[in-house]
Amino acid sequence: MTTFALDTSTPSPALALVQDDGSAATLRLDASPNAGRRVMLAAHGLFVSTGIDVADVRRVVVGVGPGAFTGVRIGIATALGLGQALGCPVEGVVTHEAAALGMAQVAPDGALVVPASDARRGELFAAAYRWDGATLTTLVEPCAIAPADLASLVAERLDERGAVVGGNGAQILAPHLPAGAYALAAGSPGHGIDARHLVARADAGATVPVRPVYARLPDAEVNRLRNLEAAS
Amino acid sequence: MIAGPVLAIETSCDETAAAVVEGRDVRSSVVASQADLHAPYGGVVPEVAARHHLGTVNAVLDEALDRAGVAAGDLVAVAVTQRPGLIGALLVGLSTARAFAYARRLPMAMVDHLHGHIAAAWLNPVALDPPFVSLVASGGHTRLDLVRDLAAPQLVGQTIDDAAGEALDKGARLLGLGYPGGPALERLAAAGDRAAHRFPIALAGKGVRDFSFAGVKTSLMYAVREAGDLDDAARADLAASYQEAIMTPLAERLVAAARQHGVPAVTVGGGVAANGRLREMVTAKAEAAGLRVAFPDRALCTDNAAMIGAAAQFTPLVEWPGFVSLDAMPTAPPGGIAA
Ligand SMILES: [Zn+2]
Question: How many inter-chain contacts (A to B, CB under 8 Å) are there?
Answer without folding.
Answer: 104
